[in-house]
Amino acid sequence: NSRTVFLLSQLEKINLDSVVGASDNARCVTSKILHLVQSQEKTRKEMTSKGSTGIEVILSTLEVKSFNFCSYGLIAVLHFIIMKCGGRRASVIVTKGGTQILLQLLLSASKDSPPNEELMVLLHTLLAKIGPKDKKIGMKARINGALNISLNLVKQNLHNLRLVLPCLQVLRVYSTNSVNAVSLGKNGVVELLFKIIGPFSKKNTSLMKVALDTLAALLKSKTNARRAVDRGYVQVLLTIYVDWHGHDSRHRYMLIRKGVLQCIKSVTNIKLGRKAFIDANGMKILYNTSQDCLAVRTLDPLVNTSSLIMRKCFPKNRLPLPTIKSAFHFQLPVIPASGPVAQLYNLPPDVDDVVDESDDNDDAETESEIEAENDDDKDQHFKNDDIETDINKLKPRQELGRSIEELKMYEQFFPELSENFQEWDLVSKEPKAFVPDANLSGPIVVPTASEE
């Protein structure tokens, strides 16, 4: 009975009718719905209440290609609802297929030259909000071909903060997928992010924070981490961290400092990253900065992350330690003149004598991740016909612990398990001859094993 329900029913009716003049009616109804959502909290609650079909009607209208002219107004309605009602409605949009519809709109809007900036901002903001609620958003973006749209927008509008910020938020969501992270890294996203992050500055701190979070997610891929090490970005990250640590005396930008540490933590997951961290004097830098943070309790996350990085990168040695690295000196009773033990004792103090083989299978792991992701992509379109349905084949085979020949020795203890039902003479230990009872009349029926 409300005006909102009436307008939604009109919009739904326009979707079903393909008459001349429907475009003007749809534009008029869309503007009225947007005005009510922006001005009345009652309308927002009514559209997001349980049992309401408001979001379904909007999504179905966006899916109709002939009504692209009113897409901006309907996207603005969804954007306003999510921004005002929080993330409660994001999962509803995902369950109704909103992710796929928004990606299709993003793909079609990117074909305009130049693309509508306002529409791109709204679409990326919506995708950034609903992305964490959809576990398959990275795969969907790759299948639809929308993966590089956000990256190209950042490249072309590097100084447009209003557009770059939501684009980076979407890239952060995409980067949680390992295959997407490798693909974006090949297209130069790591180098692009290092153009955004930089020394201490009070301007654009929100963009700095999002860029660091996106970079940390990308560097979890070992391929991107190796690319960052080859270009000397480990030293750059340490320099940025020291600069922010020195200027942030009031600790207002602790999250940015933690973001830099997260990037260092991700890049030191590989052997080359740990070596580059040691060569850049990172151990001393993090130790000194951690000492400065011990007096402030709010900086405990920085100390904890720095400790994890230092423990991971510290050279590993076998006991006993004959060098100054250890507080105790374990002397072997007899040290041979030659051999592997003598070689360990003759190594310089700074040499890591434990072979690190953690990165030897990186390429195989990356290929297996890509194959697994491709299998997930196929599952979206094709049903798996290789599932075994034969119950007999699915039952586990029960194998005897001993052979049949070995088990025959116990046959005399269990005569009831054999098919010979003759009476046994305990004295002669031989079967007795069967003698029928004379008092019995009628035929004698010997029970079979099943009747027994």
From TrEMBL:
Keywords: Carboxypeptidase, Hydrolase, Protease
Region Disordered: start-end pairs: 348-390
TM stretches of this protein: none
Segments of skewed composition (Basic and acidic residues): 378-390
Biased composition (Acidic residues): 350-377
Domain of life: Eukaryota
InterPro entries: ARM-like (IPR011989), ARM-type_fold (IPR016024)
GO molecular function: carboxypeptidase activity
Cross-referenced Pfam families: TPR_CCP1_N
Protein name (database record): CBPC1 carboxypeptidase
Organism: Oreocharis arfaki
UniProt gene name: Agtpbp1_0
